[in-house]
Amino acid sequence: MYSFPPKTNNPIFTATAKNFLTKKEVSYLLNNLQNIPYSQGGIGNEDEFDDHELFPRKSKVKWIPYEDKFLHFYKKTVDIISFYNTRKWKFKLKSTLEPFQYTEYDSSYRGKYDWHVDIGHGNISNRKISVTIQLSDPSEYEGGSLEIYDSYTSSIEGFPIKQAEKQLGSITLFPSYTPHRVTPVTRGTRKSLVLWVGGCTFK
Predict the structure, then answer these.
(1) Which pLDDT band, with edges at 50, 70 and 90, does 39 fall under?
(2) 3 is a domain residue
(3) Residue 166: helix, strand or coil by DSSP?
(4) Is residue 151 part of a domain?
(5) Residue 90 is part of a domain; what is its CATH number?
(6) What is the C-alpha to C-alpha distance for residues 17 and 164, in angstroms, rounded to an integer?
(7) How far is the C-alpha of 179 from the C-alpha of 150, rounded, in Å?
(8) Range of 190's domain?
(9) In this predicted model, what pLDDT tens digit does every residue of 89-117 receive, in sequence order?
(10) Contact in structure between 100 and 193 (CB atoms under 8 Å)
(11) Angle at alpha carbon of residue 83, lines to 19 and 18, rounded to 5°
(12) H helix count then E strand count, the chain
């Protein structure tokens, strides 16, 4: 479990770039994902899904393999992670830890992900930077806001919380120990791409 606000001496702030992916790149990516099967979004090391309203995560995901048709997206994302890490966090990074996770939050089941962090025990203990790329135009859905605890931003609900950019193709990066959530989607579908990079476990 984590405390909220988090107790840490590490920097807690985000980085954002608009137009990271072009509309053409997003369209290419979505077209090439069609034959990859869905699975239900789990939590941490779990692979569970529960339709109960109180369950903290309700989403569908696809895992994108390291194949030639997707390598452009891996390289481009790793390059921008390196750019911001050098200027902001200066973490010791080794590699991507898992493949891209394509995620859908749909209004038919009020897709959401309550407050959580992306690190924990086992195979997710080495995550250091989390990345989210917007694959939906903001006109296509309502709700579904990615909200991130950010020490350098204004207050929401009494805490310094930043709402991530919703523009199609934008990218948001933040330390994996940062509390964040996706608010319930009330209309349409929010689509995104998630990636984690890491190294040695935080001390």
Answers:
(1) confident
(2) no
(3) coil
(4) yes
(5) 2.60.120.620
(6) 10
(7) 9
(8) 15-41+53-198
(9) 999 998 887 999 999 999 999 999 999 99
(10) yes
(11) 15
(12) 2, 15
Task: Render pLDDT for 139-154 as a digit per residue (tens, 0 to 9).
Answer: 999 999 999 987 666 5
Are 60 and 190 within 8 A, CB to CB? no
Give 50-53 contacts, CB < 8 A, sequence gap 24+: 51/109, 53/110
Rg of the chain taking only CA atoms, in angstroms: 16
Does 193 fall in a domain? yes
Q: Which amino acid is at 5?
A: P
The token pair at 120 is 């924990």
Q: Can you give the pLDDT at residue 190?
A: 98
Determine, yes or no, domain membership for 33: yes
Q: Please, which residues bridge with residue 182 across strands?
A: 113, 146
- Predicted confidence at residue 95, as pLDDT, reads 82
**Count of structural domains, the chain:** 1
